[in-house]
Design goal:
By secondary structure, the chain is an alpha/beta fold. The protein has 15 helices and 7 strands. β1, α3 and β2 form a beta-alpha-beta unit.
């Protein structure tokens, strides 16, 4: 029995060591480069202007912003996720003076209630901030938060992470071995071939009007096909406003640019309830939804600016507002 315990212990130690090495040298940069990539930069930078929101402001690259402005947004962020990040900043004594905050129609919807970063944002949370909206004792919170990080430290033992792990290994192999040792020498490419390759990937600007409308309708019914108002999200929204008032943080609301066809679809829905919620609060809202009508070259899709042209151009508008 004693020999068996020793063998099992050695095996577990060996397995954990292998997992640690895989995490440390292969998966770490790829995994934490994603949702947690802003943690160290924001703590180091300590900005006084904070941008929160979902994929709309996320397109604005940090290099287009002033030194005192930090874009802390991420895909699918809900008011709950934004509250967690705001509290993370305040708990770490980041001197936020101005908050650039979304004031968009879909932020109170069932779509946003179902699609958010609840599982990810716990990484930025404290027990106090997380349990504002999710009731649980400290031990349950502690183990919930640990369970977020634990699979990353044992990548070879997490079945749920298999697809992500496969992508990580492929990317690691490509970046570190394939490009260096197995790539062929570049062949001379004619000008015609270069033009074809550049035009191979179809972008929003290249779509026909019928294709644009089809994509826009699909997105619209996904966002607004169900209820456009959720009480829990309203509670989160009110909490953010209250925290900002208590900490003397100026809020600037933004309705981000949309394409012509998506603006037309918005007319089909009654958003008076959502508008009344925003109007009931004492902060200015800048409506840029129609800012770039007819300028489809600035968009990635029906409701997102592209990073190269659109977001770069829009960052100029943000600078004007902030100043």
């Amino acid at each position: 029995m004693k020999k068996f315990i020793i063998k099992i212990s050695i095996f577990i130690l060996y397995l954990l060591t292998i997992n640690f090495l895989v995490f440390q040298f292969i998966t770490k940069d790829f995994v934490f480069h994603d949702y947690l990539k802003h943690e160290k930069p924001i703590l180091k930078k300590k900005p006084n202007v904070l941008i929160l929101g979902d994929s709309h402001p996320m397109a604005i690259q940090q290099k287009f912003l002033d030194e005192n402005v930090f874009n802390f947004s991420y895909h699918s962020e809900s008011f709950f996720d934004m509250y967690i990040k705001l509290m993370f900043c305040l708990e770490n004594e980041i001197p936020i003076k101005t908050l650039i905050f979304p004031a968009e129609d879909h932020d109170f919807s069932k779509y946003r209630m179902d699609m958010n970063n609840k599982k990810n944002s716990i990484a930025y949370s404290s027990y106090g901030s997380y349990t504002e909206f999710y009731e649980m004792n400290f031990f349950k919170y502690f183990f919930t938060k640990i369970s977020y990080f634990f699979p990353y430290y044992i990548p070879l033992m997490d079945n749920n992470n298999s697809r992500r792990l496969e992508r990580i290994f492929k990317r690691f192999w490509k970046d570190n071995f394939e490009k260096k040792f197995f790539s062929e020498k570049p062949k001379k490419i004619s000008k015609k071939t270069k033009v074809k390759k550049k035009n191979k990937k179809k972008v929003w600007f290249d779509f026909s009007e019928e294709e644009k409308l089809k994509h826009a309708k699909s997105r619209f019914y996904r966002q607004f096909g169900k209820s456009i108002y959720q009480k829990k999200l309203h509670k989160c929204f009110d909490k953010i406003i209250k925290v900002c008032d208590e900490n003397k943080i100026k809020i600037i609301g933004i309705k981000y640019p949309l394409t012509t066809c998506y603006n037309k679809l918005l007319k089909e829905k009654d958003f008076s309830k959502i508008d009344s919620i925003y109007k009931s609060k004492d902060f200015k809202i800048y409506d840029f939804r129609k800012k770039y009508l007819g300028r489809d070259e600035l968009f990635r899709d029906q409701d997102h600016l592209n990073e190269t042209k659109g977001a770069k151009l829009f960052s100029v508008e943000l600078k004007k507002i902030i100043k």
